Amino acid sequence: NAGVTQTPKFRVLKTGQSMTLLCAQDMNHEYMYWYRQDPGMGLRLIHYSVGEGTTAKGEVPDGYNVSRLKKQNFLLGLESAAPSQTSVYFCASSSPGTGELEKLFFGSGTQLSVL
Amino acid sequence: GENVEQHPSTLSVQEGDSAVIKCTYSDSASNYFPWYKQELGKRPQLIIDIRSNVGEKKDQRIAVTLNKTAKHFSLHITETQPEDSAVYFCAASLSGGYNKLIFGAGTRLAVHP
Question: pLDDT at residue A111 above 90?
Answer without folding.
Answer: yes
